[in-house]
Amino acid sequence: xxxxxxxxxVMPFAHAAAGKFLDPLNAAMxxxxxxxxxxxxxxxxxxxxxxxxxxxxxxLASGQAYEFRSDLGNTQPGDGKRFKGRGLIQITGRxxxxxxxxxxxxxxxxxxxxxxxxxxxxxxAAWFWKSRGLNELADAGDFEKITRRINGGLNGEADRxxxxxxxxxxxxxxx
Length: 175
Fold this sequence. Notes:
Layout: H1 4-10, H2 17-31, H3 37-50, H4 79-82, H5 94-104, H6 118-131, H7 134-140, H8 143-151, H9 157-174
Helix pairs in contact: 2-6, 3-7, 3-9
């Protein structure tokens, strides 16, 4: 279980949002087996980067760049904007929204904005994490592969690595 002090140490720019996300984050981590120091540190570091330390639960860009991206399942006009990144790990694309809806029993296909609510933002991130085998990669210490599975590349690598180092120190101190 992550404490508020730990969360604020990992994400100092989260400010009041840390308190808003703490309980839903702990519940989601428990639900999806993010339950070791290595898993928690890697997960928190990736969330910190993807959400701008809890400042963004919806991608700032319009989503137009995802229009008709069949690799994301965006096959209908407007899918790019409708299914742009949301949640703490920025779930993107119709296919991911459908899978998330089925896994979490949250109708984020009809109501994509539901992934912006704290509980759903946390659960969708933890679901994505577990469904992509990221617990096992965290156990192995393969942070680069985790980043590639989340981002498709190494975008923001330096920031992610710096956040991971802080998260490992903060969580190891408590273990």
